[in-house]
């Protein structure tokens, strides 16, 4: 798991600690990106899947650590992840709080600001998204708001770095605010009795939340008991503390918002104009599908040249090693285990980086919220929010980002059900096996078979979600969510988000993939000097083959290929090739020749990347290169298995653990135990479905 | 009438919120509370959820959630 291991207290030792707090979708990430520049670090909040943005910078010569707290509408959370913000604020005691508020939505944002004045930490308000407010027809006076609140208010446009410098210097000089809300006399009386019993700088806010019935760890048992007694007394007088406190805050927020408003000329915003099209009753879904299609086109057109380049580097390095005339076993280990392992990890990098880039864009631009709105009507039948469809769709490209995208789901139960379903979604790698077998065994109907497999995978995924929903605790899934305004996120933020997410994958999955590739190499090369059918790999496969007889698969070489298929599905075809046709010797490459080849490949990749831009909008200047079907392999396969067995084999490939990388991603999101469950569950489902498939075709 | 009964472009004032504490709190946090003006914007292509405007906030909520919010049409 990619957590920040150093506790914040130590970090803050080097300088001032400053946190950003605000509603979701107020541009907090963009602001911290603008403040931090290249110093931005992205990790996870310890023990959670919530992204944590942190930066170290200098403001007027003073070293400063900036931490972005998760977006929340109120310090009294409506779900677990919002609670992080409250916990961190109360326990960290930062030197300054930057409250980021949406200038175009003052009233709702000021509710949290008022709570922050009660928490009492030094406060400065960033009146962000000033440009959007102006576009909405709002004219605001930051000074009027500052005067009314008694804290500095800095107007900012974070995406254009406007006001960012001023904000930092104000944050350095931030003062403790005075509480702004006067409550009902009965509440104030209760506060007068309760606050002296609380030993915490945020005692007024803590006392208020205790009166609202919240359990706060910072209160002594005596204070807890007193709060409960006061709350009961109020309720008995017919006064509901929750209602009184909430209404008083809203009234004050409303008054502050009105006071800061100089003029308002309502206009139809760009967001509303785009939504009329994107959420259109008829055009909405086609637009959504085209957008998802573009995401995949973008990813594969940009990533493929670089995957090809990495494979070329691997081939050249392997060739050099062979040219060194090392002992054959050592050369084989270096080129087929180490190089192949590192190569497998690296080939994921361009693919994941591009998918994460696209995903970060969809997320921060506001498009993902629209997709969730469109698909909620489908997903609510599975007791999931509409957002849960995105991981399943991304899974079609690669399961790893699909699983990572389940982090966007609020409830752990929703995340678990969706993450366990993603591995059944067929990805690009499984297509290589489908294409080969379908062409050999089902000529003329190949496309239909492949399409059917994709549908079957999707169906099993949805059934898994439904089944786990029946078994698990019933958790209400909400449809309630904010639909934020469309925004063009800064390219630098997207780049950093994609880079961090990709690196986090490499760190988490690199080790397991290397180990798995090395293990498979050892199995297929030991004992040394043996024939192809006496290696450990062959013996294990021969031992397991009777278990596959009910699936009409009788050839140990097919069963054996499932083992490297566990590492990555791309290698299944290659393994079958080696098993049936013998190993392809790695050709020795001279040093100079290798350098030349690398140069050529690099140029070709750069050219292909440049051509990907026109190809994205449909002008295909260079068609994707098709791999030659291995002719000898097709003939060997046709003899090795019947069409029934072949179909069962494909169904098995579709449904069992997709790859080690997926498991590593699963472990990061749902933990070790559930990942182990996923492996077993996948094998059971794969076996049962393959059995059915073999019976289906008579 | 219920929030779910509003027609596109209708404006109304919220009278009461759902009884369920969790939903009630979530709606309040997003600014939907008794007395505020709401405007019905559209329903999703599949008929559910609904998009409404509360002040400057756009909200999505499911039909069965909107059925628990009572409103009064603005004259």
Outline the structure in words.
The complex is a heterodimer of chains A (698) and B (75). Chain A has 698 residues and is α/β, with parallel strands linked by helices. Chain A has 28 helices and ten strands. Chain A is 63% helix and 8% strand. In chain A, the strands form two sheets. A seven-stranded mixed β-sheet of chain A has the order 2-3-4-1-5-6-8, with helices on both faces. Chain A has a two-stranded antiparallel ribbon with strand order 7-9. In chain A, helix 14 (328-365) runs antiparallel to helix 21, helix 19 packs across helix 26 and helix 21 (491-525) crosses helix 28. The longest helix of chain A is centred in the middle third of the chain and has 40 residues, at 284-323. Chain B is of the alpha+beta class and 75 residues long. Chain B contains two helices and five strands; from the N terminus they run E-H-E-E-E-H-E. Chain B starts with 10 loop residues before the first strand and ends with a strand. The relative contact order of chain B is 0.33. The model of chain B has no long low-confidence stretch (mean pLDDT 91). The interface between A and B is medium-sized, with 40 and 28 residues. Strand 10 (481-482) of chain A pairs antiparallel with strand 4 (57-61) of chain B.
Short description, anyone?
Chain A has 698 residues and is of the alpha/beta class. Chain A has helices at residues 8-12, 28-36, 80-92, 106-119, 130-135, 142-149, 164-172, 185-194, 203-211, 221-236, 241-260, 270-278, 284-323, 328-365, 367-379, 389-395, 399-405, 412-421, 428-441, 446-471, 491-525, 536-544, 556-567, 570-581, 591-616, 631-640, 643-655, 660-696; strands at residues 16-22, 41-44, 51-59, 62-68, 96-102, 123-128, 138-140, 152-155, 261-264, 481-482.
